[in-house]
User: Fold 4-hydroxybutyrate dehydrogenase from [Clostridium] fimetarium.
Amino acid sequence: MQKFNIFPTIEQFESCEEFLGEFGIGKGDLVFISDSTRDFYFTDAFSDALVVNYRKYGSGEPTDTMVENIYNDISGYTYNRVFAIGGGTILDVAKLFSLKKTVPVLDLFDRKFEIVKNKELILVPTTCGTGSEVTNISILELTAINTKMGLAVDELYADYAVLIPELISNLPFKYFATSSIDALIHSIESYTSPKATEFSKLFSEKAMRMILSGYKEIIKKGPEIRNLYLNDFLIASTYAGIAFGNAGCAAVHAMSYPIGATYHVPHGEANYLMFTEVYKTYQALNPNGIIKNLNHILAEILECEDNLVYIEIEKLLDNILPRKPLHLYNVTENDLLIFTNTVMTKQSRLMANNYAVLDKETVLSIYTKLY
Assistant:
């Protein structure tokens, strides 16, 4: 049996002002937002709500420590709705605060107690990459065990996913690049997942086409031209989120997590480091499955022969976000085996979605080639 779901109601607004008028945020609401986003887009808003400036609790990828510190600080406040306006970090953190019980976080991720959602959840992305607004996944760095892990349960779906292109209009190019490449990889990994359906593949393919076509225009006309395509990139990110929310991501994400957790490499950047080498390996292991269809789609978009897609996509993406070998991130040769063991023992949820089986030796060989 195959199934396909879109859980949140997706709402689109032309402006932040229109969003505020619709949702009437105030007393009894918990709002996660950075001070900079609030000052730039929501001046004088949220005065009656409890506002959490998540940057006060740390920078970079979300952690269990961040969640528990926020929980301790707001424990005396009663709220019925949770709003998160931000990137993937804050969306993933905020999801956990829609639950009846959030801490201890490690016990939550280990499912040692019943997971119950008892608050309305409204997610508003300010990047064009995570797709978290439409998924049931919260991904944290669990500092107690020194790895990134995902909790995927239906209780983490938002009630509303809200898209406002205005919120990504001032996104610096580096963050635009890392987030949109993350969305591209979501679309590709979900397309080749064994859990993919004809419905999820529609969303995967559309996201691929929108993102890669946008990149071609950016390379041709310059970085500032992206402002004409912000709505496309935001929608493509949500399409990719719907696709991987149903079909899952796989080895690219699994192999990027230890690097992100250990050396604090931005998530989209870490994914791109892994992406083409994983797919070249898939191609060598099983060239005649769904990857054949993927390659044909990519070749059509990139205007090249099917057998050249990974060479051409590297050329394209390196113009958006240049790659570096792993050793330039201070990764050591000893890390490669540690990372491999982490992937094989801690990331089974993702590795189950691989297009072809990757054993320990193959995972290590991919890391080694990228070193």
